[in-house]
Amino acid sequence: MGFDVHATDGMARRGTLTTAHGTVETPAFMPVGTAGTVKGMMPGSVKTTGAQIILGNTYHLMLRPTAERVAQLGGLHRFMNWHGPILTDSGGFQVMSLSDLRKMSEDGVTFKSHLDGKRHHLTPERSMQIQHLLDSNVTMCLDECTAFPATHEVAEKSMKLSMRWAQRSRDAFVERPGYGLFGIVQGSVYADLRAESVKALTDIGFDGYAVGGLAVGEGQQMMFDTLDVTTPLLPKDRPRYLMGVGKPSDIIGAVRRGIDMFDCVMPTRSGRTGQAFVRRGVLNIRNARHAHDDRPLDEKCGCPACRSYSRGYLHHLFKAGEMLGPMLLTWHNLSYYQDLMADLRRAIAQGCFEERAAELEAQLLLGDIPATPDPLAGTPAAEAEAEAAATEPDAKAGGAADEEIHSVPVDL
Hints:
Blueprint: E1 2-9, E2 12-19, E3 22-26, E4 28-30, E5 32-33, H1 43-48, E6 54-56, H2 58-63, H3 67-72, H4 76-80, E7 86-88, H5 92-97, E8 102-104, E9 109-112, E10 119-122, H6 124-134, E11 138-140, H7 152-172, E12 180-185, H8 191-204, E13 208-211, H9 220-230, E14 240-242, H10 248-256, E15 261-263, H11 266-272, E16 275-278, E17 281-284, H12 304-308, H13 311-319, H14 324-350, H15 353-364, H16 380-390
Parallel strand pairs: 4-15, 5-6, 6-7, 7-11, 11-12, 12-13, 13-14, 14-15
Antiparallel strand pairs: 1-2, 2-3, 8-9, 9-10, 16-17
Helix pairs in contact: 6-7, 7-8, 10-15, 11-14, 13-14, 14-15
């Protein structure tokens, strides 16, 4: 696996990650394919959004259909018909989130499956074996994702365990051309622990470095403060991956601080619930204000939802419970994220990142375009529609403001 930095602008970097299954232009956003699929999308459709790499979830795949089954069926690329690069997480985050179903030890973590209650024991060595069987291009070390908030003492103990597991992961990882292993920096929001973690990982030596333990409730400013003291310590010739992030403003701010790779379920999960990302922020297509709107979600977007369908039609699909609605909104959201990354890459290459980032951040604060008057207002048809909408729990009559959505790190 190789990584080349082609341009920098401040701390922002424009690079290329080279793997056995193709290259990834960075900064890059990875759609999440939790159980071997990006929900609501065909692999070819994911590719048309501009995505070059996707993320698979080790925890879910080890439980169903099992890593051994995926290997028997040709590996994850063939299994899910995605022939580009794949990154898999170690399974640690999902296991750690099962606080009532797991037991930690120096050796690893024992947990009960959320599917059938069976016990499993996940160690650094087993995590490496699973990800090797899946044939992922980027393997992640097993780590303990420290809960937030955590005292310095708790965060230090957790971080040091993760560093011991990182060494064991490195020892168990099978080197192959075009494949790599990333270490994960931990230490909660404590600068001294983050620095200690970076030193431990760089002493071991990895193909890339992830910043873990963020986007877990600490808030955007604290996340940025933690990145400010962490990313400058990371090797400049290795990719940097901020795990589980996030909102567009999170991504812009993290690219500003030297991060190269991102993943989050936000665009897909939001698409399934009727929330769309547009250049002026976030809108809820279920809101009544969209029912009569003949305009696209975003006039500057080239995705199928924006090219061929109106807001009014998308609103109808969600109100009618038609599966095409979530599919189109997911496609749009993934396209929005990939367009954002391409915009940031272009700005870095042209040496105008800060100016463009400021423009994008200002646009996100504008809010959606004003609602248009309903041509059918006052007619029996409009009154019947309003009456039906008023009986629904998610009704937003009167053009109420669209709901904000919040970052979520995993798609359980």
